[in-house]
From TrEMBL:
<keyword id="KW-0819">tRNA processing</keyword>
<feature type="binding site">
    <location>
        <position position="32"/>
    </location>
    <ligand>
        <name>Mg(2+) 1</name>
    </ligand>
</feature>
<feature type="binding site">
    <location>
        <begin position="32"/>
        <end position="37"/>
    </location>
    <ligand>
        <name>GTP</name>
    </ligand>
</feature>
<keyword id="KW-0342">GTP-binding</keyword>
<keyword id="KW-0548">Nucleotidyltransferase</keyword>
<keyword id="KW-0547">Nucleotide-binding</keyword>
<comment type="function">
    <text>Adds a GMP to the 5'-end of tRNA(His) after transcription and RNase P cleavage. This step is essential for proper recognition of the tRNA and for the fidelity of protein synthesis. Also functions as a guanyl-nucleotide exchange factor/GEF for the MFN1 and MFN2 mitofusins thereby regulating mitochondrial fusion. By regulating both mitochondrial dynamics and bioenergetic function, it contributes to cell survival following oxidative stress.</text>
</comment>
<dbReference type="GO" id="GO:0005525">
    <property type="term" value="F:GTP binding"/>
</dbReference>
<dbReference type="InterPro" id="IPR025845">
    <property type="entry name" value="Thg1_C_dom"/>
</dbReference>
<comment type="subunit">
    <text>Homotetramer. Interacts with MFN1 and MFN2; functions as a guanyl-nucleotide exchange factor/GEF for MFN2 and also probably MFN1.</text>
</comment>
<comment type="similarity">
    <text>Belongs to the tRNA(His) guanylyltransferase family.</text>
</comment>
<dbReference type="GO" id="GO:0008033">
    <property type="term" value="P:tRNA processing"/>
</dbReference>
<dbReference type="Pfam" id="PF04446">
    <property type="entry name" value="Thg1"/>
</dbReference>
<dbReference type="InterPro" id="IPR007537">
    <property type="entry name" value="tRNAHis_GuaTrfase_Thg1"/>
</dbReference>
<feature type="binding site">
    <location>
        <position position="33"/>
    </location>
    <ligand>
        <name>Mg(2+) 1</name>
    </ligand>
</feature>
<keyword id="KW-0479">Metal-binding</keyword>
<dbReference type="GO" id="GO:0000287">
    <property type="term" value="F:magnesium ion binding"/>
</dbReference>
Amino acid sequence: KQVMTHSQYDYVKSFEIPDPCLPNCWPVVRIDGKNFHKFSTTHNFEKPNDDRALKLMTAAATSVMDLLNDIVLAYGQSDEYSFVFKKKTKAYNRRSSKLSSVVVSQFSTSYVYHWKKYFPDLELQYPPAFDSRLVLYPSDKNLRDYLSWRQVDCHINNMYNYCFWKLVQSGLTHVESQERLKGTLSGDKNELLFSQFGINYNNLPQLHRKGTVIIRDKERSTNHLAKIAR
Ligand code: ATP
Ligand code: ATP
Ligand code: MG
Ligand code: MG
Ligand code: MG
Ligand code: MG
Ligand code: MG
């Protein structure tokens, strides 16, 4: 490879500020679909949870883990996925922008690449975008709390969405359903689902209530993702 040396243009490189991940911290990249409220409507996602879309997200996440061996775990729900790198990763010299951008790029292209496998009868209407960020967690407790936070978010949204769409399916308008749910606590929503629709929230699929965890199986070849746990 040719390398330019001592040119009058060399100085522009110094405008590139280093952005290394701090040592001894867990780098976590979270990607999230851009305006998936619209994307899910345009593509007729089943409400509140379209299993094809959830499986496609997991296929895209698996492809990210195949590309980057230093990702030890991923957690996904709705239109988001979090990727946990090992603390001591040396990938891309720990440059945050590189890690964050290569994850979201591989995720996006894989989402489009695998689309027709999960939606064989539905053509992709436009190219979806995902954003990404990298956050560093200094302690194992911080990392566990981060993952718990995303899972609680999954639970809260899922419970709301189940109630909302059940009410809509029973004939209420979107606004009426919103009004009905305003100010309700989790116990109220449990009760509403049970008394009005005969649904026991705890019996709903774990995939919907808890999201998806992908872990790398160290026993197998480094590249092989054996276990997709719910
Ligand atoms: P890295 O992951 O570090 O970027 P890389 O292999 O992509 O590794 P680059 O310095 O980005 O390295 O160089 C891109 C390479 O891709 C070029 O050296 C060239 O071999 C190839 N390439 C890119 N565009 C073209 C093209 N239009 N025609 C032929 N080769 C190309
Ligand atoms: P932003 O660009 O700010 O992220 P957004 O519209 O993507 O905006 P989110 O908070 O990320 O907002 O919410 C994602 C939305 O995508 C959900 O509210 C839901 O409507 C929809 N969605 C995502 N996945 C599914 C799925 N598997 N089934 C049904 N709807 C889904
Ligand atoms: Mg290049
Ligand atoms: Mg958002
Ligand atoms: Mg989104
Ligand atoms: Mg989201
Ligand atoms: Mg390159």
